[in-house]
Design a protein that fits this description.
It is built from ten helices and 15 strands. The protein has helices at 35-47, 106-109, 124-127, 130-141, 146-170, 176-214, 238-257, 278-281, 284-306, 323-336; strands at residues 2-10, 13-19, 24-28, 66-74, 77-87, 93-99, 102-104, 115-118, 221-226, 268-273, 276-277, 311-314, 339-344, 356-357, 359-364. Strand 12, helix 10 and strand 13 form a beta-alpha-beta unit. The longest helix has 39 residues, at 176-214. 37% of the residues are buried.
């Protein structure tokens, strides 16, 4: 459970402190005061990065760095977490992580404050490109799976190097033997990523079918993992062998096009509404409910694999939802019992009051801050 967070020079906040309770925490207010920024700060404290923006966009205008510090408690005891982002070199900014005031790496830090978020832009999980759904899945995996966390880092590094190599080979420069070494790394790390994605999506799919019923959607929900390349009979060793074979077959075409065409960076995760992709088979209101159902499913998954309740960060939760869905969703949150932070402009008049008002003290700089 997150007890509190102290914010320094993040977005529109010069200084801010928020204290959280167990269960549902409610923060209602007019647009532009920084409600979303508070949730993003908690998300950063949890995951060390945010899908909403790079570090440079999160530093308050006129400042060079930001700091976030939080205290958490669980059955395993109490801890302090801190992330400090300062100017770096080539990458622009660098982060430092501290657990109980001791500097640590990401593998030690991640997982202490498991979290799941929903922001209005998350409709792109249904409507957007495959990369958004891959990112959603990978952000879930890195919170508990060290092997996947490491494999993703190594895979991305190998992919960048391979694409540079392919660019050179396309114009007649470079050594084809170097490409083989990159393909070896991509097959090794990519097979682990795809195997874990497939296993995780199988569990998420079962939970999603349940949430569709709880939230009263008029169709079933399921997840369809479309690995690249496809695997007909997934097994412990088949992912690696399958990737190696397809990389070899694609080598000539990849050189001709100058880009990597095979691997988990081209996987797709289709969210199915009945027999149709939810992108075309569900209305916009239903798509919003589907994305919220996905948030609940990810929270339940984290609880099952980590053994600790995650915190749910739900921004502008009730916007564009009908009265029935607002009621059902609120009751579902109460039933699940996770710590949650809900923001919005006002609590729906048709939904009985739930949770406690968030204790929040902030020194903002709206005229010169980042929204």
């Amino acid at each position: 459970m997150l007890n509190d967070i102290i914010i320094h020079d993040f977005r529109n906040y010069a200084r801010a402190t928020a204290h959280f309770s167990a269960g549902i925490n409610v923060l209602m207010g007019s647009n532009g005061i920084g409600k979303s920024n508070l949730l993003e700060a908690v998300l950063l404290l949890s995951l060390t990065k945010s899908p909403r923006a790079p570090y440079g966009d999160q530093v308050r205008w006129g400042e060079s760095h930001f700091d976030l510090t939080g205290s958490i408690s669980s059955t395993n005891g109490s801890h302090s977490l801190q992330i400090s982002v300062t100017p770096g070199s080539a990458s622009g900014y660098r982060k430092q992580l501290h657990l109980d005031e001791t500097r640590v790496g990401g593998s030690t830090y991640l997982g202490h404050l498991p979290s799941v978020s929903f922001f209005p832009g998350d409709l792109a999980i249904v409507q957007g490109s495959p990369s958004i759904r891959r990112q959603m899945l990978d952000m879930l995996l890195v919170q508990h799976d060290y092997q996947v966390r490491s494999a993703l880092l190594e895979y991305r590094r190998a992919l960048e190097q391979k694409n540079r190599c392919l660019t050179d080979l396309r114009i007649g420069r470079g050594d084809p033997a170097v490409l083989d070494s990159y393909n070896f790394q991509i097959a090794t790390h990519g097979a682990l990523i795809q195997r874990q994605r497939q296993r995780t999506l199988a569990l998420l799919g079962e939970l999603l079918a349940e949430e569709a019923g709880f939230l009263g959607l008029p169709f079933s929900l399921s997840l369809n993992y479309q690995a690249n390349p496809p695997v007909t009979e997934p097994g412990e060793g088949s992912w690696d062998l399958n990737l190696r074979n397809h990389l070899a077959m694609a080598k000539r075409e990849e050189i001709a096009r100058g880009v990597a065409l095979v691997g988990p960076h081209r996987d797709e995760v289709a969210i199915m509404a009945g027999n149709h992709n939810a992108k075309i088979g569900a209305s916009q209101g239903q798509q919003r409910t589907i994305v919220l159902a996905m948030a609940l499913v990810r929270a339940r998954y984290l609880e099952s694999v980590i053994g600790r309740d995650p915190i749910l960060l739900l921004d502008d939760l009730f916007s564009e939802l009908d009265a029935r869905t607002c009621k059902v969703l609120t009751q579902r949150l109460i039933t699940l019992g996770y710590q949650a932070v809900i923001t919005g402009t006002e609590w729906p008049t048709t939904v009985p009051a739930a949770g406690t008002c968030l204790s929040f003290d902030a020194e903002t700089a709206l005229a010169g801050g980042r929204s």
